[in-house]
Structure formats: C-alpha cells, structure tokens
Design goal:
The strands form four sheets. Strands 3-4-2-1-15-14 form a six-stranded mixed β-sheet. A six-stranded mixed β-sheet has the order 5-6-7-8-13-10. A three-stranded antiparallel β-sheet has the order 9-12-11, with no helix packed on it. It has three domains: 2-230, Deoxyribonuclease I, Chain A; 248-357, no CATH class; 366-396. The chain contains 13 helices and 17 strands. The protein is an alpha+beta fold. The radius of gyration is 28 Å and the shape is extended. It comes from Panicum virgatum (Blackwell switchgrass). This is Endonuclease/exonuclease/phosphatase domain-containing protein. InterPro entries: Endo/exonu/phosph_ase_sf, Endo/exonuclease/phosphatase. GO terms for molecular function: catalytic activity.
Length: 417
C-alpha cells in the first residue's frame, strides 16, 4: 500500500495531467493527494477515471492559487472528515486492518498566515487519538540545512513548524533520493532548493506500519517533486503474454516508415512480417525503457549537490519526458477503441472514461476452507483450481439398483398398445 503526494502547481495544464497519470500508472498508489491544483473542484474530481481511481474528492482553488484533491479505489475504505483550504482529512481502513487518520496538507503560502495551518493540525490532534499520518507540502522546513541556496529562512518560521510537530507528537519518516522537493529560481539567476514536501506520522501509526518508507521521485511538469510513501509490500503478480497489436504511436517515430517499407519489399513475406512485428514490439518496449532511463537520469542530475539549478541537460531531459508522455497518451487513446477522434485532440477525458470502462476485474484475495484469507497468488490459483475441479467432477454411484428400481418397466403387450 502507498500514498503519492504532489504539489502539481496547476491541473489546468495537459502536460501536468499526463505526468500525473504516468506517475499513478508507474507506482500504483492506493491513495493520491494533489496540491495546489489551481482549478475548481469539479475539474479535479473529474480526473478520477483518467487516473484509474474509483473515488475522488477535491477542494476548489482560491483565485489563482490553492486547491486540493484526493483519489482512492474501492479496495480501501475512506471516510471524509472536515476539510479546509489547507487540508483534506479522512479516515482510512484497509480490509480488516486498523482504522487510522490521513491528512493531506497544503501549508499556507504567506509566512504571516502560516500559523493557521499549524493551528488547524493542533486542533485535529486534540480531537482524535487514532494513528495519524500527515503528508503534503507544508511550505516550511524543520531544519535550516533543508534550505539550500540564497534567501535563508528565519528562525521564527522554523520554530513555529517545530512547535506544531512537537504538540502533535509527529516523527519525520525520512526519505530516499535527493534531499529537496522544491526548486526555485531567485534574483540574480541563482537557485534555491528546499525540502517543503514531507510525511509526518505519530508513533502509533509507525507501530502499525513499521516498514513505511518515503521516496522523492522526479517530475518534469512542476517545480515540486512527487513524494511516495509506501508502508506495506505486496507480492508482484505475474503477467500473461500479451497479444501483438498495432500501435498508432509508432507513426510518431521518424524511422517507422522506412522499417515498414523495407520489410514490405523483401521476398519472404512470412519472415519479413515476423521481423517487422519484432521491430515494432521493440519500439513499444523501448518507449517504456527510455522513459524509465530519462527519469533515472533526471533524478541523478537533481541529486548532484554541485548543481544549484537546472542545467541545459536537465531541461532537455524534461522536454523529452513530456514528448514521450504524449506518445503514451496516444496509446491510451487507442486502447479506448475510439479511433474516430484525432490523437491531437487535447480533450482527453472522453478517451480515459472509455478506456477505464474496459478495465479488467482482478481477484485481490480469497477465503480458504479454514476461514483464513490469502493474498498469495499461487494459493489463490490452487483454490480456484480445486473449486472448479470439485464443481465439475461427477460423484457417481456404485449401486445402480436403487435407481433402476424406480424406473417403471414396459412389457411386450404394453408396447403393442
């Protein structure tokens, strides 16, 4: 199970929505929190099908800033609690597990108003004793070392944040990856890097989920990076062999036409078609590998302590990631089976709704004969095989006399009649 939090700096941008969809697909989080959406709540809530979720709730923006949203699926139970322009508060329960509290936070941007966020969190603490996790953009640091570059933060700002953390009994869960989550260009062309996004948890939440760990990811469409908190490992499911299908996305590659022409002009049709199919499959897998490689390279560059701002190479990588995300969008549209609209159409919500309706159901767990529940893939296979084997096996009988004695007999005279 996991929670993805991202200050996306506006969901009115098609490139940002594409990247958010790619993130949701890549890391498959149980819950997604989006911050500073900068759009009305109905627009955020309408993205749930495009992102592959069953449920959503959002708080509208205030002018050109603010706005929050949360997405989740039906495999966890979520109950909405009071919310504000700074937070969305919910109760979460996974199966028969413990009930706990999740608060998605967007800290007040104005320093003289930031105490409102801290007061709100302290009020939540006073009204609940459940295990509690807070995640989001707090717009503040706990230590001066978390602010790299010019424009140092005042001690009073940091002290207010620390005081709230102490009152609520929070622990910082740490992170993997580069040490900052926000990058800003300041006067004179310099850059500062700050850890504004984080996860805070009470000790009883950490007792419930001792394996919890956070990772700082990379993003090309925002100056904030997404953070992913995972608290329980799941057994990977084996995938079956996929059928070959033509991808419209292939046509966006310059070498596609030449490969097609060369294969068509060869004499041995069977061999050339197999070669063409093999080449085209490699294009699809190459797209996935290239995206993964670019994101890893972006993480490496952003983690370099010698760099205080995006280099030319980093900007080129971000540009390439956005281009490949667009090619993935074309594939998404094709999978919706609505082929009579152009791939350049930016109103993609219709495609996502159609494609989401075709999602296959999957069995997450099965109850064994002894009453215990299993999520083990092999055990579920054995249970299903055993069930249908028993269902379609004839019980048979060795004593047919009892059956035959109930059948009336007909003699010669009866047949003549």
């Amino acid at each position: 199970m996991s929670c993805l939090s991202w200050n996306c700096r506006g969901l009115g941008n098609a490139a940002t929505i594409k990247e958010l969809r790619e993130l949701a697909k890549d890391v498959a989080p149980s819950v997604v929190c989006v911050l500073e959406t900068q759009v009305h709540k109905t627009r955020v809530e309408g993205l749930k099908q495009a992102l592959g979720f069953d449920n959503s709730f959002a708080v509208s923006n205030s002018g050109r800033s603010g706005g929050l949203g949360i997405f989740w699926n039906n495999d966890i139970r979520v109950a909405l609690l009071p919310y504000s322009q700074y937070h969305i508060d919910v109760l979460v329960q996974e199966g028969d597990g413990d009930l706990w509290r999740l608060t998605c936070v967007y800290g007040e941007a104005q320093t003289n108003e930031r105490h409102k966020t801290w007061d709100m969190l302290k009020h939540i603490k006073s009204s609940s004793h459940l295990p509690w996790l807070c995640i989001g953009d707090f717009n503040e640091v706990l230590h001066r070392t978390e602010h790299i570059g010019v424009q140092e933060r005042s001690h009073a700002q940091i002290a207010g944040f620390r005081e709230m953390v102490d009152v609520c009994g929070f622990n910082d869960l740490g992170y993997e990856g580069h040490s900052w989550t926000y990058e800003k260009k300041v006067a004179g062309g310099s850059f500062c890097r700050v850890r504004l996004d984080r996860e805070l948890a009470t000790p009883d939440w950490s007792v419930c989920f001792p394996l919890a760990k956070c990772k700082h990811l990379s993003a090309a469409a925002s100056d904030h990076v997404p953070i992913l908190l995972s608290w329980r490992s799941e057994e990977p499911r084996p995938r079956g062999k996929r059928r070959f299908r033509y991808e419209v996305m292939w046509e966006s590659y310059a070498e596609f036409s030449n490969s097609l022409l060369e294969s068509w002009q060869k004499e041995d049709e069977a061999t050339t078609l197999q070669e063409l199919q093999s080449k085209l499959k490699k294009v699809s897998s190459h797209l996935v590998r290239e995206l993964r490689k670019l994101k890893q390279e972006l993480e490496r560059l952003q983690s370099d302590p010698q760099l205080t701002g995006p280099t030319h190479a980093e900007l080129k990588i971000k540009e390439k990631i956005l281009e490949l995300n667009h090619r993935e969008e074309i594939m998404w549209k094709q999978r919706s089976r609505i082929l009579w609209l152009s791939a350049g159409d930016r109103n993609t919500r219709f495609f996502h709704i159609r494609a989401s309706r075709r999602r296959r159901n999957r069995i997450a767990k099965l109850k064994k004969p002894d009453g215990h529940v299993t999520k083990n893939v092999q055990e579920m296979r054995d249970l299903a095989t055993s069930f249908y084997r028993e269902l379609y096996t004839s019980e048979g009988t060795s004593n047919m006399d009892a059956v035959l004695n109930t059948v009336p007999t007909k003699g010669y005279h009866s047949n003549e009649q």
